[in-house]
Amino acid sequence: MPVVPSEKTYSVIRRYGDGESFAKTFNPSLQTICAQNIERSFLGDAPSLALLSQTYPNEQVNTWIIAHLMDLYKFAGVKEKPSFQQVLELAVMIRVEYYYFKASELLLFFFKLKSGEYGTFYGVVDPMVIMAALIEFKAYRRHQREIYDREIQRKKREEQWAEWERNAVPCPVHLKLAKAFVEEIQNAE
Questions:
Q1: DSSP per-residue string spanning 60-94
Q2: Which whole number is the average pLDDT over 51-66?
Q3: CB of 121 closer than 8 Å to CB of 91
Q4: How far is CA 55 from CA 6, 9, 10, 35, 149, in A?
Q5: pLDDT tens, 67-104?
Q6: Contact 119, 138 (CB under 8 A)
Q7: I need a labelling partner for 75 at 20 to 30 A (CA). Which of 60, 68, 126, 152 fits?
Q8: Dihedral (CA of 42, 46, 51, 52) sign
Q9: pTM, whole model, 2 decimals?
Q10: Which Pfam families match (predicted)?
Q11: Is the dihedral of CA 137, 75, 57, 51 positive or negative?
Q12: Is residue 127 exposed (0-12), middle (13-18) or buried (19+ Cβ within 10 Å)?
């Protein structure tokens, strides 16, 4: 039975085009922009890996992740390149395990990994080191999102208080209305 594309998948296709166009938009050079705009990387509307997998074939999503892994290997100047099977398996593990990451968050992860925030590579980029770094990044992501969520809630509360203040009946006016109401009840009796 064929899967009916959702409105979200259509939205991704309208915005980014096919899988190749998406990969060109979210290429490794965008990692720096994600690092310069951390809040937007977390709160922006970039699609999640799960949505990408619903929109494009898994092979295309894997290939996009592989492009970032190969960029990492190139950056690290590894002497011993992993086999294609290792890189593919790592890409699949990232796509499946971190399906809830937005594309921008994954790019931010690769930037932070390249900047040494999650350790260094000594001639070999070990897939286990990358997976361990993703666990650290996941904790960082959770912490950042909690900070942003608290700030969003604080702003909503401030807006609600401001609205209540604008719509509230001032105290002297309220007392006059209450007195008039009581007098009206007394006169009715």
A1: HHHHHHHHHHHHHHHHHT-SSPPPHHHHHHHHHHH
A2: 96
A3: no
A4: 9, 5, 8, 26, 28
A5: 999 999 999 887 777 889 999 999 999 999 999 999 99
A6: no
A7: 60
A8: negative
A9: 0.81
A10: DUF6633
A11: positive
A12: middle
Give residue 183's identity as a one-letter amino acid code.
Answer: E
pLDDT tens digit sequence for 97-142: 999 999 999 999 999 999 999 877 776 678 888 999 999 999 999 9
Is the pLDDT at 3 greater than 70? The verdict is no
Averaged pLDDT of the chain: 89
Confidence at residue 2, expressed as pLDDT on a 0 to 100 scale: 45
To the nearest 10 degrees (0 to 180), the angle between helices 103-114 and 58-76 is 20
Report the alpha-carbon distance of residue 35 to residue 74 in Å, rounded: 19
Task: Please write the tens of the pLDDT for every residue from 6-42.
Answer: 889 989 999 999 999 999 999 999 999 999 999 999 9
| SS3 state at 98 | coil
C-beta separation of 102 from 41 below 8 A: yes
